[in-house]
Amino acid sequence: MAITINGSGITSSEIADGSITAADLDVGQLGGRRNMKIKGAMQVAQRGADSKTVGAAGSPAAVYVGPDRFLMYNTITTADQMSATSSYETDAPEGFNNSFKYLLTVNPTGDNYTDSYGDIRQYIEAQNLQHLKFGTAGAKSLTFSFWVKSNTTGKFAAWLYQPNATRDITKSYTINSANTWEYKTITFDGDVSGVINNNTNVGLFVGLNAWAGTNYIRSTDSDWDTIGGTRYNTSSTLLETSNGYLQTTGWQLEVGSVATPFEHRSYGEELALCQRYYQRWDNDASTTTNAAIGVTGMTASSNVYFGLVYKQEMRAKPSFTSSGSFRVWNATQGARTMTPDEFFNPTRHGGRIRFSGGATNGEAALLALEQAGTYFDLDAEL
Q1: 148 vs 246: CA distance, rounded Å
Q2: The whole model's pTM is what?
Q3: Domain total for the chain?
Q4: Is the pLDDT of residue 29 over 60?
Q5: Cα separation of 123 and 119, whole Å?
Q6: pLDDT of 305
Q7: Rounded distance, CA 173 to CA 175, Å?
Q8: Which of 233, 302, 330, 362 has the fewest CB atoms in 10 Å of its CB?
Q9: Quick one: 138 and 265 in the same domain?
Q10: Averaged over 95-109, what is the pLDDT?
C-alpha cells in the first residue's frame, strides 16, 4: 500500500523499515521545538548593531555581539597582535534577514599565534539538554546545520564542547565558492562518556572556528574525547586573506542524523528566550528623552530606590551596568540628573536601582531615562 505525503508516494514497507527521511515527511511543517539554538536566525539584537572588537589592545578576548546569544572569541589578548571585529548584517541567504560577520582586520602575528584560535559560538544551558542522554549508552546524535560564506575557500571546522566533562568533538566542512552563501550540515555522535549536569550553567556550546594557529590544527576529524591542543581539522585559509571574514546565519542544532528545515520562531518568542540571559532597558528610540521607567518612594537614609520587575525571569542574578544620564523627579528637590550607584539585592525576578542623596522619607518619585541613548543592562549570560 502506498501513502501520499508531501506529494510523494510512500509505501508501508518504507514506514516499517524506517527509511522515510525528513524531506519525505516535510517535517518543517510539523513545528515543535527541534532547534536547541536560541535565535539561530539572528533577528534579535538588544545590544544594537554596533561592531565589537576582540584581540586588539584594550579589547577583551571574548565579547557578546550584535545578535543576541552569540559570542565572538579569540585567545590572543596581547596588544596589537591581532584584531577582529563583529558586525550585524542584513545580508543573508533566502529565507533569512540577518547574519553575523567575523572580520579579521589585523591578521594574527607574533609569538602567541601558533597556540591561538578564534571562533563564533553559542552556549546552551545544561538543564535544556537532559534529553540528549549524554554519559549513557543511549546518548543521542546531533546534527548542526547552518549557512556560511567567506571571501576565502577551503576547509573549516565546527566544534562541540561539553564543559562538565571537559570533552569535545570537531568536524570539518568545506567552503567551495568565495563570497557565496552555502548551506552546511554536520552530524556529531552522542557522547556516551561525558555527563551533562542538570543545572543552569553551560551544558554544551557549538562553535564555528574562524582561524587556528598551527598547534591547534589536526589533519582528521575528532571523536568525543578529553579536550586537547590539536582541535580543528581546518586549513585556516582565513589567515592568508586580507580582511578575511566568516559570515553565518541559520544555526540549527537538533537530535538525529538528518538536518530538517530551519525552525523559524516569531520575533516575540525569540526575544523572550534571549531575555532570560540579557535585557537592555532603553528609551526605545534614538530621539526620545525623559522616557519614564517607574514610580517609587524614598528611604529614611535619603536614598531613592526604584523597584524593577524584569521582563522575563533571568537565568541567574544579573549584573547591572548603565550608560547615560537618568532623571529623578520628586516634590522636595524637583527634577534632578542622577547616576545609579548600586543595583540593590537583585534576584532572578527583580531588584532595586539605588540613587543616593537628597530625598525625603516616603516621598514618591519618578524615574526616567533622561537623554536619547540612555540605557541600562541586566546580564545573566552563560
Answers
A1: 7
A2: 0.89
A3: 3
A4: no
A5: 13
A6: 85
A7: 7
A8: 362
A9: yes
A10: 90
